[in-house]
Each structure stands twice: as C-alpha cells, then as structure tokens.
Amino acid sequence: AQRVTQPEKLLSVFKGAPVELKCNYSYSGSPELFWYVQYSRQRLQLLLRHISRESIKGFTADLNKGETSFHLKKPFAQEEDSAMYYCALIDPGGGADGLTFGKGTHLIIQP
Amino acid sequence: ETGVTQSPTHLIKTRGQQVTLRCSSQSGHNTVSWYQQALGQGPQFIFQYYREEENGRGNFPPRFSGLQFPNYSSELNVNALELDDSALYLCASSFGGANEQFFGPGTRLTVL
C-alpha cells in the first residue's frame, strides 16, 4: 500500500537558519510528489510539485528515488514560513486514487 | 475566478444521523475529490468524482456516498454517523484527477 511518512511532527528553527522537512514514501512505481502548505487560518495550498522543478518562496525539494525521499529545503528560514507542511503523492496515471498525505510537520520559525 | 467553496462551515450532529456537505468547484475544473482530516492527521482520500461519476474511492465504507452535478459542484453524504466521523472534510477541485488540486476551506463536522 502506498504511504507517506513525515517523521517530524514539530520542527522549530530560528530565523535565518536552514530548514529541512523530511518526507519518505512507499509506492510501487513512480508517483508524482507534492508539498502542500497550510498557513494559519488559510486553506491548504500547493507549495511545489516535483515535476515542476521550481523553487517557490525559496523552497526546493529533490526527489531521491533510491532513498524514496522528497525532502523540502530552504537555506534561510523566514518568520512567514511558519505553517503546517504536508507531503503527498499521487498516481500520475490518472489520479483516481486521490492524494495520499503524510501526517504533516508543524514548522515554527522563531525570531 | 472563484475558488473552491464549501458549506456549511461547521456542523454538529448526533450519532446515527445523516449529513450532507456541499462543495462548489473552481471555475473550469471538472473533477472533485473529497478528503477527511481527523485531528492531528493528514487528509485522507474518500472518493473522487469526474464528469458526474465516482471514478476512485479510498478506504471508506459505503455509508460515505457522493454526487457530482452537471455544473461540477458536489455533495458528500454520510449516513449513520459515528463518533469517529468527527473531522474536517475537505473538498478539492482540479482539471483531471492527477493535476493540481485546489482545496476549499473545509467543513468541520462534530458528531456527539
């Protein structure tokens, strides 16, 4: 069965420090991977997807198929990065199984 | 362009009752997916509707059912409510199931 694991429930770092949110997955095949973010009092929104290979708000995520990981990184954290972050995967063949989410990591950026 | 909307915002029901939650998809989207998010958990996929038909379902019992209308809006119905059904229910719309899903604000259901 497909699964997404985010080992850290809570991650607290100081402003300006590097951030890495971990995500590991299990899936038979090549899934499409996403990071979703939920800022306080806002709805869940897409941060980035691995096929886009973009850097959004300074965040990047590299897919490592050998380690089945998709960690989210940012070199210098900002206070506005404080939010809940969810890693998710989907079958790229049609998506009829929906997104499979991890339990989320609450990122707190301290001033 | 209007985003995904959901109604109601909050709902309180008692065990054994039935509930209907509503979702209006984003303009131009033809696919609606529903998720259940229990406290402290990530969203869990319930089912997906594409062109008015269910085309994918997660590990939820048949008392969770849905509809999609010609304008691509959708309903989630839950019969015989149980205490464990208390959760945030999220609706997401997309153009096709594998493309970016845009989420609504959710409906908070409390079952007493």
Please give the share of residues in helix of chain B: under 10%
Based on CA atoms alone, the radius of gyration of chain A comes out at 14 Å
The end-to-end distance of chain B, rounded to whole angstroms, is 38 Å
Provide a count of the helices of chain A.
0
Task: Considering residues with a beta carbon less than 8 A from a beta carbon on another chain, report the largest interface and each chain's count.
Answer: A-B, 25 and 31 residues
Shape of chain B: globular
The count of DSSP E runs of length 2 or more, i.e. the number of strands of chain B, is 11
Q: What shape does the CA trace of chain A take?
A: globular
The computed structural class of chain B is: mainly beta
| Rg over alpha carbons of chain B | 13 Å
Quaternary state, please? heterodimer
Kindly estimate the percentage of residues of chain B that lie in beta strands according to DSSP.
over 45%
Percentage of residues in helical conformation of chain A:
under 10%
* Largest β-sheet summary of chain B: 7 strands, mixed
Uncertain ranges of chain B: none
How many separate helices of chain B? 0
Mean pLDDT across all amino acids of chain B: 94
If you average the pLDDT of chain A, what whole number results?
93
The topology string of helices and strands of chain A comes to EEEEEEEEEEE
